[in-house]
């Protein structure tokens, strides 16, 4: 029974992947991503080429919220990268250093509350046209404590065990 499951499950997953590639979505993104203020966040964008005749001409990232929309960056196969002058200009980059042909995920450094919104990753291909995926980024306040917020702790009656050494008890240790 176990051997049959080991064969059937991978076949079903392969079928699902092939079906998606041939008939479904061409741009893979995460629908929702949560980032934490002051930390880095990665937004996934991958192009799945189901049509071998398609040629990628360019890809672009945009950001929008209820009141604004900005082009963040455009990568053209002929002209290279154009990083637009936006609030993200100094904090955004592609995750991989190679040209973002099929994998165009981005990293946003030092995420801010104002970075929340809908990010769109769009590929322009020939002959099949444009393909877009969207990710909604939610930014939460980082609630972890920084080292300066931590208090000194004093432990008493601690036993320290060291491999290969005699065990010693101490009456008080301070860290």
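Q: What amino acid sequence fits the structure above?
A:
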């Amino acid at each position: 029974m176990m051997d049959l499951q080991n064969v059937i499950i991978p076949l079903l997953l392969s079928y699902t992947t092939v079906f998606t590639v041939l008939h479904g979505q061409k741009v893979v993104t995460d629908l929702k991503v949560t980032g934490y203020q002051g930390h880095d966040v990665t937004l996934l964008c991958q192009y799945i080429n189901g049509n071998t005749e398609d040629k990628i001409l360019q890809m672009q990232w945009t950001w929008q919220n209820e009141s604004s929309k900005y082009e963040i960056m455009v990568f053209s196969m002929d002209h290279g990268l154009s990083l637009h002058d936006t609030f993200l200009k100094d904090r955004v980059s592609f995750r991989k250093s190679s040209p973002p042909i099929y994998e165009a995920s981005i990293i946003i450094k030092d995420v801010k509350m104002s970075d929340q919104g809908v990010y769109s990753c769009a590929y322009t291909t020939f002959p099949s046209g444009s393909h877009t995926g969207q990710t909604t980024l939610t930014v939460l306040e980082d609630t972890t404590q920084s080292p300066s917020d931590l208090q000194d702790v004093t432990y008493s009656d601690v036993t320290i065990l060291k491999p290969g050494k005699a065990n010693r008890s101490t009456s008080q240790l301070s860290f």
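Q: And what stands out in the fold?
A: The domain at 26-142 is CATH 2.60.40.10 (Immunoglobulin-like).
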